[in-house]
Each structure stands twice: as C-alpha cells, then as structure tokens.
From TrEMBL:
Coiled coil residues, start to end: none
Domain GFO/IDH/MocA-like oxidoreductase: 133-251
Record InterPro entries: Gfo/Idh/MocA-like_OxRdtase_N (IPR000683), Gfo/Idh/MocA_Oxidoreductases (IPR051450), GFO_IDH_MocA-like_dom (IPR055170), NAD(P)-bd_dom_sf (IPR036291)
Protein's organism: Chrysosporum bergii ANA360D
Protein name stated in the entry: Gfo/Idh/MocA family oxidoreductase
Gfo/Idh/MocA-like oxidoreductase N-terminal domain segment(s): 1-123
GO molecular function: nucleotide binding
C-alpha cells in the first residue's frame, strides 16, 4: 500500500517512523514546506532515493496508485488538504483536531462517505492500552454507580500562539471521558484566565481578552454525570491525570506514573445509623498489554482500508463530535462561563 506523509514536524516524524516500519505499507513520498525538515528525515531514517521528498503537495499527483495520505500539518490547513486528498481518491489519516470548525468537519465526513474512502483522526489516546483497559473496567460496572470525573493536564510550556490552552490540551481528556462513558456531553461550560498573551500586548482576534493560559472545563452528560478538567500551560507541576469516581471505587489513568498508570482504588461507604463509614478500601494496579498507541493508530488505519470498513474508534465522525464540543467550550469561554447547549 503506497502512502505519503504530509508534514514531518514534531508529530509527523512519528507517523513517518511507524509507516516506514509497517509491513503492509510502502512510504512513497514525504511532503513538507521546509526543505531542512525533508533533509533531516532523509538522514534520520536513511530514506531510499526512490522516496519523493517535496515541498509541494501537488507533486503527489505524479505518483501512480497512491492509496492514502497521513496529514500532520497545522490544524488551520487541515480542511483544504483533507478535502483535496479525498477528492483525489486518497484515504486520509489526519492529526487532531480534524479541523477547527464543526461545519467543515461534517462536510469532510460526508465527502469521505460519498467517495467511499476512510477518513480517520489520530486521537492517539483512544488507542492507548491503559485507556482501552479502563473502558473495559467502566463498562463492567466495577465502579458501581458513576458519580463524577476529573482530569488535570498541566505543564510549563510550550505556549501556543495560534490557539489557547483549551484547544491545545482539552481534546485528549474529552476523548477519553467520551470513550469511557460511551456518551457525548449534553452541555458544556468553560472559564479561563489570560496572563501572557493579552489583547494589550499582542495583536489578537480571540475575544474577550486574549489567549487563555488557564481553563476550567465542565462537561455535563445526558445522565447527569459531570466531568471537570483543569488545563494550564503555565504550571511547573506537570500533570496528565484523569479519573472517574463511582459508588464503589475510583479509576485513575495517570501517565506520569510509569509503574502504575492505571489504578483502581476500591472503596465505598457503609451506613451505620447516621454515619457513613469507608469500607473495602484497597488499591489495585491494573495490568494491560503494553504497546505504542501511535503504532496501533497506524495499523488500525491500514486495516480499515484493507477491510474497507469505517473506523469506529477514531473516525472522522468522532473527530467531528470532539470539534463540536471544543467549539461549544470556546463559545462558553468567550461568554465568560455561560453554559452552552450542544
């Protein structure tokens, strides 16, 4: 299967690495507007001379029997590139987010279906073995009645200049909550604080006061379950932690804990008179089969093409839903925390 990788920046390099190693794939072209990046990947991966290295996307049209493209370019370019790729008959794996506009996302999904092509979004966490094992635990009812969820995604930089902390960070945790709950939020709320890039010190078109460095998110699901997410790129306390609390325990996915990234904390209340006493408390480190999530993404994309079956884990439709949620949160953020119905 002939594949071209478009964009070999920080993430595109990893896509290229995985497709070069895939036994059912031949990488025939790499596209990037920066010649030094092309030279860099040629040296890094010792690319064969017959692999086309080009700064021009249009050069792909000269490759016969090109099957698919992997797009890892800035999100602002996704709509145009993906639409052109689908119209030229290529299957598409796109870096998240699918686009920055849910209307554009919907159009691309409909185009892919019309052309009978695979459109998949690289929501890598949905292929993380710990996340997949976590969904199994939630579905099994081990936690009892689900009560609420919380997540924190913080670090000290990098500070984006094209989007705020919401668009930079939130999509990962929203994707995991949706996946674990097998549900989509009914309404959303976001409040933010701007410290670094205010309208006073920078030319910005993002209302109301600049690009938010800190964002607090609330997701409300149809059954009343609420998830709270703390996002910040100005916090030296790096966190990558997500949890769901139920009546019988708490499931925690903590990327910063290499020895136990997925933990089930058993514990519940037992009523004695008017007292509620904690009982059955014990931690349980959950085992799962290790594996690189991105490798699984790439293999799932190839398998979907071979079997001609739409991806149900991270399809374009899943990507569209996540962009719609982010757009709703962005509207709430710009309305200073007003609840937005999706």
């Amino acid at each position: 299967m002939k594949i071209a990788v478009i964009g070999v920046g920080r993430w595109g390099v990893h896509l290229l690495r995985n497709f070069l190693a895939h036994p059912q794939v031949t990488v025939v072209a790499v596209v990037d507007p920066q010649p030094q990046r092309l030279a860099g990947v040629k040296q890094q991966f010792n690319l064969e001379e017959n692999i086309l290295l080009t700064t021009q996307w249009s050069a792909l049209q000269q490759i016969s029997e090109l099957t698919a493209v992997a797009i890892a370019t800035p999100a602002t370019t996704h709509y145009t590139l993906i639409k052109q790729a689908l119209n030229q008959g290529y299957h598409v794996l796109a870096e998240k987010p699918l686009t920055l506009d849910p209307v554009e996302c919907l159009e691309l999904c409909q185009l892919a279906e019309k052309r009978r092509l695979i459109l998949m979004v690289d929501h890598t966490y949905l292929f993380h073995p710990a996340v997949q094992q976590g969904q199994t635990v939630v579905k099994a009812g081990t936690l009892g009645n689900l009560r609420y969820g919380y997540a924190a995604r913080t670090h000290l930089g990098p500070v984006r200049q094209d989007v705020d902390a919401l668009w930079d960070l939130a999509i990962h945790d929203i994707a995991i909550f949706n996946h674990w709950l097998s549900a989509i939020p009914l309404k959303v709320q976001a409040k933010g604080t701007v410290w670094l890039q205010t309208v006073e010190n920078r030319e910005l078109t993002h209302p109301p006061s600049g690009l938010a460095d800190l964002v607090w998110v609330t997701l409300t699901y149809p059954n009343g379950f609420e998830a709270y997410i703390h996002l910040c790129w100005g916090n030296p306390d790096k966190q990558r932690r997500l949890a769901i609390v139920g009546s019988r325990g708490c499931l925690i996915f903590d990327e910063m804990s290499p020895s136990s990234p997925l933990t089930l904390l058993h514990g519940e209340f037992q009523r004695q008179g008017n007292q509620f006493l904690p009982v059955n408390q014990k931690p349980e480190v959950l085992e799962f089969t290790p594996g690189e999530p991105l490798q699984r993404v790439c293999h799932y994309f190839i398998l979907s093409i071979i079997e001609n079956t739409a991806p149900n884990i991270s399809s374009g439709w899943v990507g569209t839903t996540l962009v719609k949620i982010l757009s709703g949160l962005s509207a709430s953020l710009h309305q200073r925390g007003e609840t937005v119905i999706l």
